[in-house]
Amino acid sequence: MAIRAPEKEPTPPPSLRAQRPRPNFETWSWFFMRISGLVLLFLALIHFTLTHIMHDVVKTNYNFVAHRWHNLGWRIFDWSLLALALAHGLNGLRLIVDDYVRRPGRRAATKATLYMLTGVLFAYGTMVIFTFPRA
Amino acid sequence: MSTVGTPYRGKSGQWAFISHRVSGFLVFMFLLLHVVDVSLVQDKHLYNEVHAVYGNVVLRVFEVGLLFALVFHALNGLRIILIDFFPEAVRRDKTLFAVVVFITLAACIPGGYVILRPFINGHF
Prior knowledge:
By secondary structure, chain A is an all-alpha fold.
């Protein structure tokens, strides 16, 4: 990511803007990580506080989930957390794979496994959240 | 890579970078596992049986680790966003990273205590 040029440089803003590369996939990836990260900060920390701090982990049994998912709002909350966390994590891991898995064949295979695993878990999680019987 | 420069360079920044990666990786791995264990809720008895394992002290320690990774990643992410949108903040990078570490410890040590409390009190 480019940062602003030193302040003392007399270049007016329009030419700085012209120096910027055209937005591409990585630009949107960068933007998505910032936005989803901000939203996840709230979703994930609320989720963790509720299910690990306010209620002991042992108390979050089947009845706890059934009671919570009686409320459609919590189902939407949990699904948003599922979708955003998986997408944010998947994109993060994609960058990590690009950095450390250098051989093209192995890189493609690692990414294919990662995308498939995440896709299956997203579909499975979505199915579980929305087909769970309403108590 | 452009020639303009990158905020991700330097001493505390390098530690922040690697910690951000490691914590993000660990939280994502846990997330994959967590989707599977919560999905067992389709079978009441299976879910309750598997879920009871989380009360074990080993998994409680694991849970505390998750708390540290999650809170650190969230706060360090905020630091990154701050520097991305207000590049001047990079001059205070060392202070910002120290604040991230301090808040992480200040939040997670009491949080970790609450998670481990049943074990400390002998209920395990």
